[in-house]
Amino acid sequence: MTLDLSAGPPLAVNILDAQSLLSAFGVLGIAVVLFAETGLLIGFFLPGDSLLFTAGLLCTTGASDGLKLSLPWVMVASAAGALLGAQCGYLLGRRAGAALLARGRSTRLRAGADRAGELLERYGHARAVVLARFVPVVRTVLNPMAGALGVPSRTFTVWQTAGGLLWTQGLVVAGFALGSSIPNVDRYLLPLIALIVVLSLLPLAAELLRAQAARRKEARR
């Protein structure tokens, strides 16, 4: 098993572009980006979903630009970054999460915080922590919010681990499986990434529809 970090970083790296990040930093970049996105509020804009999917794709043979990643290392790095990041975010929230969110100036970050609070209130701690993994921005702010709102440490740790593994390993394996079955699939990377982002929102949409149906049923009684 080899760890390919590529020959060296380019002069300019687009931190919003998954392939640029992977070309510059390899699997180390996966761990750092996921840690920042899930553990630090400043990382809410980072491309977690597309990074995981693209990393899985680049573990297959024939990837563009000669970049080839190791699937086992990608899976380890993605899990480590996501799980450690979420736990760090939770601990920060226990200390100063509410104050940090209150001082945030980004409207996108505030909207994510509102959504995270709604998830925790509507679905309970366990389901909210798992669902948040699949929603951009929400997965950044829910962890410190869980700490600030006093979600039990054991509950948070168990379910953030389950959700983190499902999210990271699922997207990496999806990218790897697709890249292995379709020749030159990296040519269609942009539409595939857009599809992955849409699919990542489906669990939340399903929960919302289920909740609406339950409310209608309750109103008819």
UniProtKB/TrEMBL annotation:
InterPro entries: DedA-like, VTT_dom
Membrane topology: Multi-pass membrane protein
Chief subcellular location: membrane
Alphabetically ordered keywords of this record: Cell membrane, Membrane, Transmembrane, Transmembrane helix
Tagged with keyword Repressor: no
Residues passing through the membrane, by range: 21-46, 73-93, 164-182, 188-211
Pfam family name, one: VTT_dom
Cell membrane keyword on record: yes
Limits of the VTT domain: 46-175
Subcellular location: Cell membrane
PANTHER family tied to this protein: INNER MEMBRANE PROTEIN DEDA-RELATED (PTHR30353), TRANSMEMBRANE PROTEIN (PTHR30353:SF0)
Family membership: Belongs to the DedA family.
Protein name according to UniProt: DedA family protein
